[in-house]
Specification:
Blueprint: H1 2-12, H2 16-19, H3 21-27, E1 32-38, E2 49-54, E3 65-70, E4 78-82, E5 95-99, E6 107-108, E7 115-116, E8 129-135, E9 140-146, E10 183-185, H4 196-199, E11 200-202, E12 208-210, E13 216-219, H5 237-248, H6 252-255, H7 265-277
Parallel strand pairs: 5-7
Antiparallel strand pairs: 1-2, 1-10, 2-5, 3-4, 3-8, 6-13, 8-9, 10-11, 12-13
Length: about 280
């Protein structure tokens, strides 16, 4: 009976409340949000993290799921991680943290993620792309897309976490990487998706991520120095040349210096101000 209830929820748009506890028991991992995503810290795209959050009490069987990222066209699907084990703690609002190996260097205290990302989100996907939480058969359980109209791929997923199975339109800006903010789901722990544009916003500076044990890690503003474009530890003319090359190439590092997603003169002014302010 519980298996049948889960199928109804997945394919007919039935809600968690309507199906009751038996459907949650049967799902084991389906009722899950992608709560927070950060594509880099102060321009360093080797510092990344994704925080998942459970929408129900029995959603810890992660060994049945994977996380994928897609480019601006919804193509070139890349597996970020294939989860190999469940997590210990389950419950409404309980979180799961996966992060890049360098993420701990940018948090206080040093982060202890539940999983380490097998592949990082490519820098070329930062301006526009899509992150999907999927079962092992490729069913999209939750999707967050970014880049506004620059993202032209699919916004679709299963009905289990979105009543109409359409997570679009995308969040209008790029994936944050220039500062210490994260892209964050604004709903409560039990809430479904309505659409990414309405559901997601940038967190405040120094975003906080939490692992499955309930331990929290705050991104620190001082690592690394944004103005040190060539990352050699010295601010000089070569950082301006590095920034100029990044700007001409349309890379998110240069185009996302100021909060808007447009690559323009204000990004140059933003970099100039960061250079004048210096490094800690």
């Amino acid at each position: 009976m519980t298996i049948g209830l889960t199928v109804v929820c997945l394919f007919t748009g039935g809600t968690l409340a309507a199906l009751g506890a038996d459907a949650v028991h049967a799902s084991t991992f389906h009722f899950m949000q992608i709560q927070k995503v950060i594509g880099g810290v102060n321009g360093d795209t080797t510092v990344q993290a994704v925080q998942l959050r459970m929408r129900g009490p029995f959603e810890n069987q992660l060994q049945l799921a994977s996380l994928y990222v897609h480019d601006a066209a919804g193509a070139n699907r890349l597996q970020v991680i294939d989860f190999q084990s469940p997590v210990a703690n389950a419950g409404l609002g309980v979180t799961i943290l996966l992060a890049s190996p360098n993420f701990a260097n940018a948090t206080n205290p040093p982060a202890q993620p539940d999983f380490v990302m097998t592949n990082l989100i490519p820098a070329s996907y930062m301006a526009a792309g899509s992150l999907t939480f999927e079962d092992d058969f490729g069913t999209v359980m939750w999707r967050v897309s970014w880049g506004g109209s620059n993202y032209t791929g699919s916004n679709l997923g299963a009905f289990v976490n979105d009543p109409d199975g359409n997570f679009g339109p995308p969040f209008p800006g790029p994936l944050p990487l220039a500062g210490t903010e994260a892209l964050e789901f604004q709903g409560g722990p039990g809430d479904p998706s309505s659409n990414n544009a309405a559901d997601y916003a940038l967190s405040g500076p120094d975003a906080v991520f939490t692992n499955n044990a309930g331990e929290s890690f705050t991104i620190t503003s001082g690592q690394p120095c944004y103005a040190d474009c060539d990352t050699n530890g010295v601010l000089d003319i070569f950082d301006f040349l590095c920034f100029q090359n990044s700007f001409v190439s349309g890379e998110p590092y240069a185009c996302d210096c100021d909060p808007d997603p447009v690559c323009d003169i204000f990004d140059f002014l933003c970099f100039q101000n960061a250079f004048v302010a210096g490094c800690p």
